[in-house]
Design a protein that fits this description.
148 residues; mainly beta; 7-stranded antiparallel sheet
Length: 148
């Protein structure tokens, strides 16, 4: 059964694909789906475009914590106590190509096979919570660095 992920408020091309906003609060998502319903790269997402009302299919390029290591410490833009994942869609496109604001993104796959290696949302949330993370002020993050 497809389940809702987010409604696009902005998008931009990055080296990971078409990165969309807003981020997804993991605890909220995990509270309404099965523990093993963890979106993995390569799985399909459904896009419901507000301008046409039609459904499109796109590959998921990444869905994870926006994080990096600096000076031996782990940093993230989101609150480690309430982590948020950033979603990026795969596929080719022009650098200026974006999704219309209001596009809904839904997970399409009925069977999760690749998500077994994550051991589920509870394991992911516990792993982030047990780490030594620092929240970076989003306004001070150097967005020109592309290898996070």
């Amino acid at each position: 059964m497809p389940y809702y992920l987010l409604t696009v408020t902005a998008s931009r091309r990055t080296n990971l694909g078409l990165q969309v906003e807003p981020t997804v609060r993991i605890r909220e998502l995990a509270s309404r789906v099965k523990d093993t319903d963890v979106p993995m790269p390569g799985e399909r997402v459904l896009l419901r475009r507000p301008d046409t009302g039609t459904w499109w299919i796109a590959p998921l390029a990444s869905f994870g914590l926006e994080a990096w290591q600096k000076d031996g410490n782990f940093h993230t833009r989101s609150d480690p106590a309430d982590p948020e994942f950033t979603l990026a869609l795969g596929g080719k496109g022009d650098p200026e190509e974006v999704l219309p604001v209001g596009t809904e993104i839904w997970m399409a796959d009925k069977t999760r096979t690749s998500a077994q290696r994550t051991q589920g949302w509870r394991h992911i949330i516990a792993g982030i919570a047990s780490g030594d993370w620092y929240q970076a002020d989003p306004d001070t993050v150097d967005t020109t660095i592309t290898d996070r």
